[in-house]
Design brief:
It contains 15 helices and three strands.
Length: 367
């Protein structure tokens, strides 16, 4: 197939998301500046240098690397991401925050290796399903391996614990299986098994039970477990239709926990109102639809599954974050892609989008 230029519509959408995301992040981070100037510049430096700087360089590089490269080294990429994630349990290397052991610290630099694990899984599972080809439609060559991979990932992530990342990997994997042509009865079976497993986990894990209870009864403990949701709803509600204006959020200074993190959508809602929130959701929707179109017109099964997995992961993460902040989903701590603070996450997200850019060069003809 003749090589084309990068899908310009998808490129434009991504650029707008990056610019809008950074501006929202910058405004939300002013809440840190009011309390700790040193921390503010540290957060800003991390987002600019590690996130945007290295991320954009990675995006450009991956847009030029033939997507088949990832298939060739998929096993080693996945294995490396698993080993990297296991390093959080090594004393002196991994460290805990908020009761969870999800970070690796080297000097003054820290990152969450699970971000590498998410994309390592997508690359390897896409390679696995495409290698199986017609056999990938059977239970033995698709669902069974998926359950095997998922059980190993679950063991690692539930030990941290990091339930949100497991849910995202589950959603992404199921989407890839569906596209590969597996029968609905197998997919429904996996979903039912996941729901039953999650209910059992909730029963035995008090922190999960507390989050579900808060979701069902959002006003039960406004100064405790419901505090973040209540403050987020106040921020969004006070924004009205058009918002207070850029930089004018009140909630980010004294009330919202982590306003530059997973609460960043609440800051957007307060400053830009309902119109701003809907606009960002529309932007993510356009990103998703164009990304899925690239996937549907990919030159082969591996490219189709790889691009689909990347787009589904990013969009599932975005809508999970937004839904939890407005009370439509239990709070998970999932960051908002391209917007929330997190240099590692932003860098990996941009690198992954660069892979989709490259796949778009080999797309079948469409406008």
């Amino acid at each position: 197939m003749q090589k084309k230029s990068i899908d310009k519509f998808f490129l434009s959408t991504t650029i707008i998301l990056i610019i809008v995301g950074f501006l929202i992040f910058l405004s939300a981070s002013l809440g840190i500046l009011a309390k700790n100037e040193t921390k503010f510049y540290g957060v800003l430096f991390n987002q600019l240098l590690l996130g945007l700087g290295l991320g954009i360089l990675g995006l450009i590089a991956c847009s030029r690397i033939n997507y088949k490269f990832w298939r060739k080294y998929s096993f080693w990429i996945f294995l490396g991401s698993v080993i990297l994630t296991l390093l959080v349990f090594i004393p002196g290397l991994g460290f805990s925050h908020g009761g969870a052991k999800r970070w690796i610290e080297i000097g003054s630099f820290s990152f969450q290796p699970v971000e590498f694990l998410k994309f390592g899984f997508i690359i390897y599972f896409a390679a696995w399903l495409s290698a199986a080809r017609t056999k990938s439609q059977s239970f033995k060559w698709s669902v069974l391996p998926f359950l095997f991979f998922l059980s190993g990932i679950a063991f690692i992530l539930f030990k941290q614990p990091d339930t949100k990342s497991f849910i995202l990997i589950l959603i992404t994997g199921l989407s890839m299986i569906f596209i590969s042509g597996v029968q609905w009865k197998y997919i429904i079976g996996v979903i039912l098994a996941a729901v039953i497993g999650f209910l059992i986990l909730v029963y035995f894990k008090p922190y999960l039970l507390d989050r579900v209870d808060t979701f069902l009864n959002p006003s039960r403990d406004p100064q405790g477990s419901s505090y973040q949701l209540q403050q987020s709803l106040i921020a969004i509600g006070s924004g009205g239709i058009l918002g207070r204006g850029f930089g004018q959020s009140v909630q980010k200074f004294s009330y919202l926990p982590e306003p530059q993190g997973d609460s960043v959508f609440a800051v957007l809602g307060e400053e830009f109102g309902f119109a701003g929130g809907i606009s960002l959701i529309a932007l993510f929707s356009v990103f998703a639809l164009r990304g899925l179109r690239i996937s549907s017109n990919a030159p082969d099964l591996f490219a189709r599954l790889l691009s689909l997995g990347i787009v589904i992961l990013l969009i599932a993460q975005a809508f999970m974050n937004i839904a939890s902040i407005i009370g439509l989903f239990p709070l998970t701590g999932v960051p908002l892609p391209f917007v929330s603070h997190g240099g590692t996450a932003l860098m990996i997200d941009l690198v992954a989008v660069g892979i989709v850019f490259n796949i778009s060069k080999f797309r079948k003809n469409y406008a």
